[in-house]
Amino acid sequence: MHAWPASxxxxxxxxxxxxxxxxxxxGGRVALAPGPVARLYVCGITPYDATHLGxxxxxxxxxxxxxxxxxxxxxxxxxxxxxxxxxPLLERAVATGTxxxxxxxxxxxxxxxxxxALRMLPPKDYVGAVEAIPKIVPLVxxxxxxxxxxxxxxxxxxxxxxxxxxxxxxxxxxETMGLLxxxxxxxxERPGKKNPLDPMLWVAAREGEPHWDGGSLGPGRxxxxxxxxxxxxxxxxxxxxxxxxxxxxxxxxHEMGASHAQVLTGExxxxxxxxxxxxxxxxxxxxxxxxxxxxxxSQLRRDGVDPAAIRLALLAHHYRADWEYTQAxxxxxxxxxxxxxxxxxxxxxxxAEDMLESVRVALADDLDSPAxxxxxxxxxxxxxxxxxxxxxxxxxxxxxxxxxxxxxx
Length: 409
Ligand code: 5CA
Ligand code: ZN
What we know:
The protein has helices at about 55-70, 85-95, 100-115, 130-145, 175-185, 225-235, 250-265, 295-300, 305-315, 325-345, 355-365, 370-385, 395-405, and strands spanning about 20-25, 30, 35-40, 75-80, 125-130, 150, 155-160, 200-205, 220, 240-245, 270-275, 280, 285, 325.
């Protein structure tokens, strides 16, 4: 699948800083130490509806990770998937009388547009679940042949007990896992499973649903977690630097994915670090397609909101925080954008080297984007009140904001 166009990332003077980030699996801060090519997998959308601000906030977090890495002169090998066949997509297609492939294509196209407008760096490979099926089938067969998967009325389940490390990503207790499994696509109530938490690897063909040749598995379609495992192993291999997504993916998705991959390869860990963004809410509830309380990036753009202001609204919140979107959040971002644009529109200003250093320090500190914004605010304030004579300063501020925050002034 094609991704979207990359915006150019200016190279900044001086030395970028290495990133310390919160790792869900250890529950604490870790110093990331990627090689010259940092490897990142971020879970992509299930394209049955347009990109909302919650999605955009999560992708913003991982865009910052890449910008920090690029600032340390590393290359980034970034992979993202598209869950272009799964229960919620098929259900929405039926409910709206739309062809499921047309629905997925339409929403994926809109997602690309939104990501481009928001200046999110594109993945090197953007891979759909459907196109990954030929890679998925042999993995499921292998798990079954190893005794780590079993059949139940034609469906194939992964046995969570086959991974000694199961539970180490989310670190939830058994009760929480049971509740979240039921809430997030699992089927703990289904009779005949070895462990109620066992997730499906291969869904046997069902009446009226799309299905593919599954070799010895029979016709069907892939389960959710194995999709991301097949794509990550194919493109990144084991022990890549960061697996990312929203906090709702820690369990079961990232937990199960890690177990699938660890059992398949006999290696540990799947990802060195698991990083999760907080949930964006609206009117007191998590913004979610199933609840319908959504603010779409594309709708804001249609309303004439500058994508740079949308991006500043996201950056104003720490990525790990759960926060509520309100009109005031957007208004504040618009005002900040106007102040910053005004401040860099002059030929000279106060020296900006300290501002660059403060932005670097802030982002290296678990992506503290609110602190990064405060550093730029301080420079803009100084420019507005006292001004300065440094001729390179406004340009350096623009390039810093562009390179490290993805905001074009
Ligand atoms: N296709 C799967 C991942 S393989 C999926 O979860 N798709 S999604 O469309 O439901 O979500 C895409 C990304 O947005 C995920 O990382 C998810 O955690 C994140 N996300 C969804 N809702 C919110 C929200 N309200 N706030 C923040 N992030 C969210
Ligand atoms: Zn995923």
